[in-house]
């Protein structure tokens, strides 16, 4: 297994998007979707603090977090990455998209790139995702990407696993 941190932060792309490290200049665009331990940022300072914690998790080998960048506009439209389990050969895949970009294929592209990276670069044996039972968009995406529901969890959450 090849765990983070890497000599060079991985940049992966397809014809629609680029997954890259989040830059300080991106923080303002990400306030609406900046979360850490289930808490959402309310200010630019809180978003920057959260990104610092996420970077520390990466440097400790516990996660990898990419910004999703539109190839045409070069604007950041969301984030995705692995947030838990890497040390066990597993990865909890998470993602979030700015609302104005939903339904346009960005997250499908991002998740496919992240899944390929997890399996073929990191060497993960298991990939899973947790979402709210009310998040029908995320559930449709997971099913489309061959995830199967494996558990109902507390707090109205559900767990899916890549099959």
UniProtKB/TrEMBL annotation:
Record-linked Pfam families: Acetyltransf_3
One Gene Ontology CC term in the entry: cytoplasm
Molecular functions (GO terms): protein-N-terminal-alanine acetyltransferase activity
UniProt-listed PROSITE patterns: GNAT
InterPro entries: Acyl_CoA_acyltransferase (IPR016181), GNAT_dom (IPR000182), N-acetyltransferase (IPR051531)
Domain N-acetyltransferase: 17-163
Source organism, top-level taxon: Bacteria
Protein name (Swiss-Prot/TrEMBL): N-acetyltransferase domain-containing protein
């Amino acid at each position: 297994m090849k765990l983070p941190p890497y000599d060079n932060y991985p940049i992966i792309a397809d014809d629609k998007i680029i997954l890259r490290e989040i830059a300080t200049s991106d923080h303002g665009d990400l306030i609406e979707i900046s979360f850490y331990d289930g808490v959402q940022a309310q200010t630019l300072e809180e978003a920057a603090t959260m990104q610092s914690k996420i970077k520390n998790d990466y440097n400790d080998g516990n996660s990898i977090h990419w910004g999703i960048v539109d190839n045409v506009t070069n604007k950041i439209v969301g984030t995705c990455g692995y947030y838990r389990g890497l040390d066990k050969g597993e990865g909890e895949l998470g993602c979030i998209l700015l609302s104005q970009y939903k339904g346009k294929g960005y997250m499908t592209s991002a998740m496919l790139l992240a899944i390929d990276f997890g399996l073929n670069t990191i060497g993960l044996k298991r990939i899973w995702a947790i979402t709210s039972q009310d998040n029908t968009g995320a559930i449709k995406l997971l099913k489309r990407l061959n995830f199967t529901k494996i558990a109902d969890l507390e707090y109205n959450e559900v767990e899916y696993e890549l099959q």
